[in-house]
Specification:
It is a single chain. The chain is mostly helical. The chain is built from 13 helices and no strands. The radius of gyration is 29 Å and the shape is elongated. The relative contact order is 0.11.
C-alpha cells in the first residue's frame, strides 16, 4: 500500500471526524450518524495501516482519534459535582433508608447486649478479676485513668484522623465481608459490642459509669450508628447470597453490592464527622451536658437526613444502586 496516496485519500475524513468530536453534544441527528460512520471507517483505516504500512506518527494520531470517538459513541463520561450532589441527597440516604429493617434491629440488639455485658461484669467481681489484675483495672478506671486520658492522649487532629481511619475500615469490612454468609460481620459487631460492654462494666464497678458515658456518648452515638448501618447492610448482603428473591443470585448480589459500595463512601463521611467530634469535642473542657448535646444533635441530624431525604428518594424510585444507564444489561429471569 502506498501510504502517501492512502493518507491523501482519507485525510479529509479524519479531519471531519476530528471536527465533529470537537462539537461535542451540539451534534444534530445527521451529524451523529456521520460520526458513527466515520468512526467505523477510521478504525478500519487504522487496522490497515498497522498491518501493511505501520507509520508511528500516523498510527498514534489515528489511535487517539479512534479512542476519543469510542468514548463519545459508547457514552463514557466523567463524574461531576452533580453526581456527587445526587449521591449525597438521594443515593446514599435511600440506601440507608431501604436497609433500615436490617440495621435498626441490629442497633437495638447490640445495645441491649452491651448493656447486659456491662451489668454482668459490673455485678460480678470474679469476672472483673478474670479481665485483669486489680492494679491494672484501677489504672484504667480511676480518675485520670486510661479510660479518661485515652481521648486526650494525642493531638486532636491526628487523633481524629486515626479514629476515622480505624472506624472507616471496620465499617468497610462489615460491608464487604457480608458476602461471606454474614459470619464475619457478626464477629466484627460482637467485638465492638464486647469492648463497649467491658468499658461500661468496669467503670460501673468503680462507681464512675456516668463519667464513661459522658466520654462515649458525644461521638459514640453517631459512630455506633454508622457501624450498625454497615453491619446491617453487610448482613443483608450475606442474606441475599442465601435468598436472592425474584432475581438471579448474580443479579441480586450485583445490585446489593453496588449499593453497599456507595454506602461505604457515605459512611466514611459520617464517620469523619464522628471522628471530628471524638477528636475535638470529647476531650474538650466543655461541660458534660454540652458535649452530650453536641453528640445528640449530630445523631438526630443524621437520622432526619436518612428519614426525610432517604424516604423521599425511595418514594421517587431510588434504591441506592447506580442509575440504570450506568448498569450492564440484565437478562430476564423466570418468575
Amino acid at each position: 500500500m502506498d501510504l502517501d496516496v492512502f493518507v491523501t485519500a482519507h485525510r479529509a475524513e479524519w479531519d471531519r471526524l476530528d471536527h465533529l468530536l470537537h462539537r461535542g453534544r451540539r451534534l444534530t441527528g445527521a451529524e451523529a450518524d456521520e460520526l458513527v460512520a466515520l468512526y467505523q471507517r477510521t478504525a478500519t483505516h487504522l487496522s490497515l495501516i498497522q498491518s501493511t504500512a505501520p507509520d508511528p506518527a500516523l498510527t498514534t494520531r489515528l489511535t487517539q482519534l479512534v479512542a476519543r470517538t469510542r468514548a463519545t459513541v459508547t457514552g463514557a463520561r466523567r463524574a461531576t459535582w452533580r453526581d456527587a450532589t445526587r449521591f449525597l441527597t438521594a443515593g446514599f440516604p435511600a440506601a440507608v433508608y431501604r436497609s433500615r429493617r436490617w440495621w435498626i434491629p441490629t442497633a437495638i440488639l447490640s445495645t441491649l447486649l452491651a448493656a447486659v455485658i456491662g451489668w454482668w461484669i459490673g455485678a460480678h467481681p470474679e469476672v472483673q478479676s478474670a479481665i485483669g489484675a486489680p492494679d491494672e483495672l484501677l489504672r484504667m478506671t480511676r480518675p485520670g485513668g486510661e479510660y479518661e486520658t485515652y481521648y486526650s492522649s494525642h493531638p486532636a487532629a491526628s487523633f481524629a484522623a486515626q479514629v476515622w481511619t480505624n472506624n472507616a475500615q471496620a465499617a468497610a469490612m462489615c460491608l464487604v465481608l457480608g458476602a461471606f454468609l454474614c459470619l464475619p460481620v457478626i464477629w466484627i459487631l460482637f467485638v465492638n459490642v464486647l469492648n463497649l460492654g467491658v468499658g461500661i462494666g468496669l467503670m460501673s464497678s468503680a462507681g464512675r459509669v456516668d463519667i464513661f458515658l459522658g466520654l462515649i456518648l458525644p461521638h459514640g452515638l453517631l459512630e455506633l450508628t454508622a457501624v450498625f448501618v454497615a453491619a446491617g447492610t453487610g448482613l443483608r448482603l450475606g442474606w441475599t447470597l442465601i435468598d436472592p428473591g425474584p432475581y438471579s443470585r448474580r443479579t441480586a448480589m450485583a445490585q446489593q453490592g453496588r449499593a453497599a459500595l456507595g454506602m461505604a463512601i457515605g459512611l466514611a463521611l459520617v464517620l469523619f464527622v464522628s471522628g471530628l467530634i471524638e477528636g475535638f469535642v470529647t476531650p474538650s473542657g466543655l461541660p458534660t451536658w454540652a458535649r452530650i448535646a453536641i453528640g445528640v444533635a449530630a445523631e438526630v441530624a443524621f437520622l432526619c437526613y436518612v428519614h426525610i431525604l432517604g424516604g423521599r428518594a425511595v418514594r421517587a424510585g431510588k434504591t441506592g444502586d447506580v442509575d440504570a444507564a450506568d448498569r450492564s444489561a440484565e437478562l430476564p429471569v423466570a418468575a
